[in-house]
Amino acid sequence: MIAGDPLLLPNFLIVLCVLYLVVVGAINMRKLHNLRDYRKIKTFPRISVLVPARNEEATIGPCISSLLAQDYPDFQVIVLNDNSSDSTAAILSKLGQCDNRLMIINGQPLTPDWLGKHWACHQLYKMANGELLMFTDADTVHTPDTLRCAAAALLDERADMLSILPRHNLGSLAEQLIMPVFALGAFANIPLPARLRPGNTKVVSSSGKLMLFRRRSYESAGGFQSIRQSVLDDLQLAERISLLGMRYRVFDGTDNVSCRMYHGWTEVHLGLTKNVFPSYGYNVPLFVFTWLWINFVFWGPVIELGVHKIPDYPPVLSLGLAAICVISCLVLFAFYYQRFKLPLYMVLLYPVSVSLMTAIAFSSMFLTLSGQATWKDRKMPNRKIS
User: Fold this and answer.
1) How many domains does the chain have?
2) How far is it, in rounded angstroms, from Cα 69 to Cα 95?
C-alpha cells in the first residue's frame, strides 16, 4: 500500500505530529491557571517593581501610570532610563513629581561583557529594597490588581519565581500574522507539568513582560549577572531556578497584563531575529531540520488538498489524512487564539503565518552567525559555527 502511495507514510507522520501538538496544547490550556484566580492574600511582602527603559517615549507613560495605580499596599517602582535619546527622561521626570513611590535612576554606561537590558536590570536590582522583585518591560500595561494577584500566586504556589503569558495587542497585519504563531510555537510542544518539574531545564517559555522573584531565590540563582551575555534572559533565569531545585510557575496573565511588543514588520523582524536562533542553542543542524519539518507539517496537507482535482491523485487515504491534518491544525490554532484573546479569523491564514515565521527564523540564524543582529541600536552577541 505504501509503495502505491508515496504520500501515505509522510501523511501518517504528519498526522501523529499534529495530533501530538493538539493533545499537548489541550493539556497546557487546562493546566495553565489564570493569574486573576489568585487574589486572596493575607500578608503583603514589599515588592520592588523594576522597569528598564530605553527610548520608550511611546509606552513609558501608560506603563508607569498603571504600575502606580496598583491596589497593593506596599511597593515601590524603580525605572532606569537607559541612555534614552528620545523624550523618555522628560516623561519620567513629570511622573516622578506626582508620586514619591516612583524612583528614577539614570543608567551607567554599558560595560562590554553585558547585554543592555541585563545591565539595566542588574542596576535596578541593586537599588531595590523589596522582599519580592518584579521585573517588567516598559511596553506593558497592568490592571490595578496585578501586584496583588502576582504576589498571591507566588505565595500560594510556594514558588520562587513566576512569569506570565501576557495579552498581545496586535496592530498591523504583520503583527497579527506572526506574533501568535511565534508564541504558540513556544507553548504547545512540551506538556506544562513536565516543564515545571524542578530540575528540568525544558521550562515553559517564560516571559520578560513580568517576572516575579523572591529576593533570596533571585540572588541564589545569580540574577542577571549570571546570564549577562544570554539573549534569552527569561528562559535562562527560569532554567537556573529550576536547576537549583526551586519552584517556577507560569500563569495566563491576559486579564492582568497587556503589551504591544512591536509595531509593524520592521520591528517584528528586528525583535524576533534576536531570539529565535538562540532558542535552539545555536545548533544549526537542529535548527534547519526543525524549520523544514515545521513547513512540511503545516503546508504539506494544504497543498495536497489544493491539488485533489488531479485525476486519481492524491489517493483517497492520503487525501483523508491530509484533511485530518488541516482540521487538527485549525483546532490547534483556534485553541490558542481563543484562550489568549487573539483574532480568531487569523486562524485561517496559519500556513502564511508559518511561512513568515520561517523567514524570520532563518534571518535570525544568518544575522546571528554573521554578527549583524541588533536591538535598540545595540549589537547582539556574535556566535560562530563550531
Assistant:
1) 2
2) 12
C-alpha torsion sign, points 208, 214, 219, 220: negative
Tell me, yes or no, whether 250 and 106 share the same domain: yes
Q: What is the pLDDT of residues 149-199, one digit of tens each?
A: 999 999 999 999 999 989 988 888 888 899 888 877 767 777 777 777 776
- Examine the domain organization and report whether 99 and 220 are in the same domain: yes
Angle, CA 120 vertex, CA 363 and CA 238 arms, to 5°: 65
Asked whether residue 321 falls in the same domain as residue 242, the answer is no
| 136: CB partners within 8 A, 6+ apart | 49, 50, 51, 63, 67, 142, 209, 210, 211, 257
Helices (H) and strands (E) in the chain, counts: 13, 12
Q: Please indicate, yes or no, whether residues 254 and 374 belong to a single structural domain of this protein.
A: no
Element housing 131 (H / E): none
Domain co-membership, 302 together with 227: no
Strands 75-81 and 248-252: unpaired
The answer to whether the CB of 310 falls within 8 A of the CB of 289 is: no
Q: pLDDT tens digit string along 120-137?
A: 999 999 999 999 999 999
Q: List CB contacts of 335: < 8 A, sequence separation 6 or more.
A: 22, 25, 26, 29
- The CATH number that applies at residue 142 is 3.90.550.10
78 and 211 share one domain: yes
Instruction: Among 86-95, 168-177, 258-267, 372-381, name the one with the lowest average pLDDT.
Output: 372-381
| Model confidence, pTM | 0.87
| Same-domain pairing of 126 and 87 | yes
Task: Give yes or no: residues 241 and 325 share one domain.
Answer: no
Q: How far apart are the first and last CA of the chain?
A: 44
Helix axes 173-187, 316-339, angle to 10 degrees: 100
Residue type, 165: L
By residue range, what is the domain housing residue 313? Answer: 8-28+278-379
For residue 204, the number of C-alpha atoms closer than 13 Å in the C-beta half-sphere is 29
Cell of 217: 531565590
User: Does any domain span residue 199?
Assistant: no
